[in-house]
Amino acid sequence: MPIRNMVYIALSPVSVVWVWSWGFQWMASGGNLLNLPSFFLDSDNSGSAAAFLAIEIAVVWAAYMIWVEGDATTIGLCAKNGGIFLARYFLGTCFAFPLYLVMRERHLAKTGQIT
Questions:
Q1: Half-sphere exposure of 100 (CA within 13 A, CB side)
Q2: Could you tell me the pTM of the whole model?
Q3: Could you give the angle at the alpha carbon of 83 between the alpha carbons of 81 and 88, nearest 5°?
Q4: 16-38: buried (b, 16+ CB within 10 Å) or exposed (e) per residue?
Q5: Mean predicted lDDT score pLDDT of the chain
Q6: Exposed, middle or buried: residue 3 (CB in 10 Å: 0-12, 13-18, 19+)?
Q7: pLDDT value at position 12?
Q8: Labelling 57: which of 11, 34, 77, 89 has CA 20 to 30 A away?
Q9: Burial classification of residue 95, based on how many CB atoms lie within 10 Å of its CB (0-12 exposed, 13-18 middle, 19 or more buried)
Q10: Can you give the three-state secondary structure of the chain, one letter per residue?
Q11: How far apart are CA 55 and CA 60, in angstroms?
Q12: Which residues have a Cβ under 8 Å from the Cβ of 67 and sit 6 or more positions away?
């Protein structure tokens, strides 16, 4: 297994635990994760740095969702795994993206598209 895949696999659970520790605190103080506009407005009200990061992440998240679905379809991975990628997005892009990269590389190696 390439070292980068081991890094991706390590990043995924560490990042999801770290991110959700803050997410649960936000929800405990009245935040509603099902209300995404409220989530981003709360981060805007938390200060400039939080707003900067929230906007940054919102745009990357949207681009990631669009790219992964298209990429997975193009390389033939999506037909095999269906909507599993969409479910992972909502756990956190920090969780989903490293796992997608591992799945993508394994799929490409298995199909002979990379060596």
A1: 26
A2: 0.70
A3: 100
A4: beeebeebeebeeeeeeeeeeee
A5: 82
A6: exposed
A7: 87
A8: 77
A9: buried
A10: CCHHHHHHHHHHHHHHHHHHHHHHHHHHCCCCCCCHHHHHHHHHHCCHHHHHHHHHHHHHHHHHHHHHHHHHHHHCCHHHHCCHHHHHHCCCHHHHHHHHHHHHHHHHHHCCCCC
A11: 9
A12: none
In this prediction, residues 75-96 reach a mean pLDDT of 75
Residue 65: phi and psi, rounded to 5, are -60, -45
Q: Using 50, 70 and 90 to split pLDDT, how confident is the model at 55?
A: confident
Residues 6+ positions from 8 with CB-CB distance below 8 Å: 98, 99, 101, 102
The pLDDT, as a whole number, for residue 108 is 92
The number of angstroms, rounded, from the C-alpha of 76 to the middle of its chain's C-alpha atoms is 20
Q: Which amino acid makes up residue 3?
A: I
